[in-house]
Specification:
alpha/beta; four-stranded mixed beta sheet
Amino acid sequence: METHEILEKVKNGELSVEEAERFFKKQPFEEMGYAKLDSHRAVRSGFAEVVYCSGKADEHLIHIYQKLFEENGEVFGTRANEHQYEIVREVIPEIHYDNISHILKAEKAEKEHIGGIVVCTAGTADIPVAEEAAQTAEYFGTKVDRIYDVGVSGLHRLLSRVERIQEANCVVAVAGMEGALASVVGGLVSNPVIAVPTSVGYGASMHGLSALLTMINSCANGIAVVNIDNGFGAGYMATQINRLAARKEKE
């Protein structure tokens, strides 16, 4: 349970002061021997802990998912594979696996999505990274508009969607090859752009390094760059920006 939920339960008489006190006295992490789950992360940062699935031992992954699901009623993980989906599904039947983004998640059915960001890609090969960004943002309560395959080799495709892009609180621009999409988008909008270089491309793209260098050296202002293929980092940051914008609109 989150802090606000506990206080509401105390207020409504559903939870005693003593029970709430026991919760707050708990150490801010769950000791599991091989891992220390950050159970208070959502209280501090507004984002519950997320699981990086790749490379984890099966037994560890199962127990981590179980614990987070029991604690929060939902759980989200990145860079998962089909085998990990199958073993987690045995203990959490509600789990869902997306084989495009490689996200493994179980989430609450009723969830409000606020504000609005745009996630766009240069090409269809960039979609797996874009979906990691988009689904991360959606999981954390952001309304996401997807605009895919609008790279600079056919600039008219991007320009046909420019109004939708300009309305967004934040734009995530995902591109491999030479990574020029972020610069073009940055010159069209007044709100922040998060550039995500992908490892899509031929030899001289150097597994995304060329796109990364292009984005870092962009002549357009207002662009922040995350690591190569880091859709999760982009979705997380876009959500932070979106929450600030939504808060300002409320005021």
